[in-house]
Amino acid sequence: MASSVSADGYLGLNGAISESQTKNLTDLPAELLEHILCFPLLSHDDICNASCTCKRLRDVCHGRGKVWGHQYRLRWPRLQKYYRHNECCDWLREYRTRHTVGLQIRLTVESISKRFFTEVPCVGQVLGDSFAEIQSLGAPEHFCEDELLFILNSDKWKSLTLKYYAKKILYFLRQQNILRSLKLFLEQSPVQQSALEGAVLVDQYCNPLAEITVASISDQLEEITDKVQKMLRIKNPSHPSLRRAPDAGVCFHVDDLELQRQAVGVLNCVLYEQLQYKGNELDYYNPLNSYIHQVIQRHTGIPISLSVLYMMLARRLGVQLEPVNFPNHFLLRWCQKPNGSEDIYDFVYIDAFGKGKQLTAKECEYLIGHQVTADYYSAISTTEVLLRMVGNLLNIGKRGEGNEKSYQLLRDSLDLYLTINPDNVQYLLLQARLYFHLGIWPEKVLDILQHIQALDPSQHGAVGYLVQHTLEHIQHKKQPVQPEVKRRSAAEHVDVRYAAGLVMKHKRSGYNCVIYGWDPKCTMSQEWISTMRVNQLSSGADQPFYNVLVQDGTCRYAAQENLEPHEDPLEIGHPEVGRYFSEFSNTHYVANEELETRYPEDMSETLCTVRRLYHRLLPSSGGNQIQAQETAEPAEQQAMPM
Q: CB neighbours (10 Å) of residue 311?
C-alpha cells in the first residue's frame, strides 16, 4: 500500500488525500493542542513562535492557560511551593518577570568577576546597587535564590567563574535572612526561646548553602525518641512518656522522679550504646562538632552540642534538664527535688560528652581539676547557650591556619556573636582588625571603629591606628592599578616551563594542584625563603615559582623543579577554582577572561602541552576541540563579510 505525507492533511489510501479528509493542525480541539504544546522538548522560544503563527494558536497559548503554566513549571520547578494548587494566574506575565530578573541576576554575577578579580571579594560590599536594581523589578526574594541555584546546578564543569560568584551571592543572601531570623528569635521572651532552634540558626548561618531546617532536625530527634520509647516500653509498658503524642513537642513533663530515672537510663542506653554517640576527643577543635546537623549525622560532638541534643531528647521524654555554663566543660543539671531547689547539691549533673555520666557537684570539680564558686552551677538562658556555642567557633577560627576556610569561620562567628551581643568591644575590635587584614569593606571598618570609640573611648589608640590606615586604603583604591601582564615571549620569562591551567603534581609532597599564576623568580621575602628552605633546592630561589590551588583547599607557591604535569589530570576540588577558570576541559582548566588578561600567551601554551602529553586521553574529537579553542577567534573573523 503506497502512501505519501502532506504537512496540511491526513493520508488517504494509496496516498490520495481528498479535500474532505484534509485537516489543519489548528482544527484540532484546544485540549489536544495544549497537550501537544506541552511536549517537554518545546522551549519558551518554541511556544512564542507557535503563538505568532495564527490567532488560533495565540488563543491556545494565552497567558492564563495550561501551556505557559507548563513552561513555568518546567523552568522553575522549585518555585511551585509558593503557588496554591491549581492556582489561576497569568503564567505568561510570571514567566516574563522571572526571565527578566534571571537575566539581570546573571549580568550582576558576571560583573562581579571583572570588578573583584584583583581583590578578596566581599559580596556584602558590592551587592547593594546591583540587587537594588533586581529588587526594583518586583521579584520576590526567593526567586533570586532559585535563579542562583539554577546557575550552580548547571553543567558540572562549565561556567565555573559564574558559579563561583553565584555561590558567594547565595551565601550572602541566605546569611542575611538567617540574621533576620536570629534577631527575631532574640526578641522572644526567654521562656519562648528553644535551644534547638537557636542551635539550628547558628548551624544555618555557618553553613548557609546546606539545607538545614528546624523541622528536619526535629524529625531526626523524633526518630531517636521513638527508639527510646520502644526500649522503655519493654522495661515499663505503663511509663507516661509512652503516652506522649508525637505533636506534643517538648511541652511534656513526668513528675515522678523514679519514672524520670527510668527514661534517662534508657536514653543513655539508646544514645551511647545503640547509636554509638560519643564525644570527639580525637578531633575536638573540628567546627563540625558544633553544628547540630553534623552532630546527628556523625554521632559525635563536643560537650555543648551533645548537651543541647541530650536536653531536647530528655524533654521529649518528660525530663526537664537545664544547661549549666560550667568552665571548660558544658554540663546539664537535673533537679532531684520534686518542688525545685536552688541548692547546688540538690542536683545531679549530666556529662553528655562523657556518655551521660551523672555527677555530684564535687565530682564536677574533679572533672576540670579545680574548685569553682556556686555561680558556675546555675542554669543559664538560651541566649547564653548560643553565646558559648558561637564563642567556641570563634576560638576555632582564631586557631585556624590563616586560610580561606578559617577566615570565613572567623567572620561568620563574629557576625553571630555581635548580633547576640552587639556592644562587645573586644570582638568589635577583632572584627575591624580582621576586615582590615583581609583588605575588605573599608567603609564597614570605619563604621565599626566609630561604634567602638562611642562604647569605649579608652580604645582611641587602637582605633586611631586602624582609622588612619583604613583611610589610606580607601584613598589607594581610588587610584586603580593596571594589572601586571606577563607574556611568555618576554626574554626574562624564557625559563618558565609550565602555563596557567595545567593540572600538576608535586614531586615531593605528592599533592595535586592547578597553576593559576607564575613568577620567573621567587618573589617571596627572605624570611619566607629561609623558613621554607628554598635555598636547599638545586636551583634555589633563582627559578620560576608557581601559584597553585591544591586539592586540599590550600593555596601554595611551588618551585618549578618540584612540579610535574599530572599523568592523569583530574578535577581540583578547590573553592577558589572558579575565581580563575571558566571550565575544566577533561585534561586542563580554561582560564577565565580576567586570568587570560594577566597571562595572554598561556592558553596557547597550555593547549600545546595538553596535545603533547594527553593525546591518549582525548576523545576522537578531542584534537578538533582543542584546535577549535585555538582558532575560534580567527574563524569568527573569517565568517564576517568583507
A: 23
Burial class (CB in 10 A: 0-12, 13-18, 19+), 371: exposed
Contact, 245 vs 252, CB < 8 A? no
- What pLDDT digit, counting tens, does each position of 159-190 carry? 899 999 888 888 888 998 999 999 999 999 99
List the beta strands (DSSP E) in 164-255: none
Q: Provide the b/e sequence for 109-122 (b: ≥16 CB within 10 Å).
A: beebbeebbeeebb
pLDDT in tens, 291-346: 999 999 999 999 999 999 999 999 999 999 999 999 999 999 999 988 888 899 99
User: Distance (Å, rounded) from C-alpha 335 to C-alpha 322?
Assistant: 9
Per-residue pLDDT of 414-435, as tens digits, reads: 999 999 999 999 999 999 999 8
State the Cα–Cα distance between residues 214 and 200, nearest whole angstrom.
Answer: 6
Q: What is the pLDDT of residue 1?
A: 39
Query: CA dist 556 to 449, 482, 629, Å?
Result: 33, 24, 29
Contact 243, 208 (CB under 8 A): no
Q: CA-to-CA distance for 159 and 165, rounded, in angstroms? A: 10
CA torsion 342-345-347-353 (nearest 10°) is: 120
Angle at which helices 404-420 and 195-206 cross, to 10°: 140
- Are the C-beta atoms of 154 and 105 separated by less than 8 Å? no
Residue identified by cell 494566574 is: 89
* C-alpha cell recorded at residue 273: 550504646
- Residue among 244, 220, 218, 242 at smallest CA distance from 232: 242
C-alpha–C-alpha distance, residues 312 and 296, integer Å? 13
**Under 8 Å between Cβ of 448 and 431:** yes
Residue 242: burial class (beta carbons within 10 Å; 0-12, 13-18, 19+) = middle
- Distance (Å, whole) CA 251 – CA 596: 61
Cell of 443: 567603609
Query: Of 494 and 133, which is predicted with more confidence?
Result: 494
- In angstroms, the CA 601 to CA 604 distance is 6
Nearest to 271 by CA among 250, 290, 246, 296: 296
**What are the residue ranges of helices labelled H in 317-459?**
361-368, 382-399, 404-420, 425-438, 442-455
Q: Which helix (H) or strand (E) holds 115?
A: helix 91-116
Average pLDDT, the chain: 86
Q: What is the structure's pLDDT at 4?
A: 40
Give the Cα-Cα-Cα angle 552, 202, 284 (nearest 5 degrees): 50
Pairing of strands 322-324, 331-335: antiparallel
b/e for 409-435, b at 16 or more Cβ within 10 A?
bbbbbbbbbbbbbeebeebbbbbbebb
Collapsed DSSP state (helix, strand, coil) of residue 210: coil
Cα separation, 452 vs 458, in Å, equals 10
At 622 the pLDDT is 44
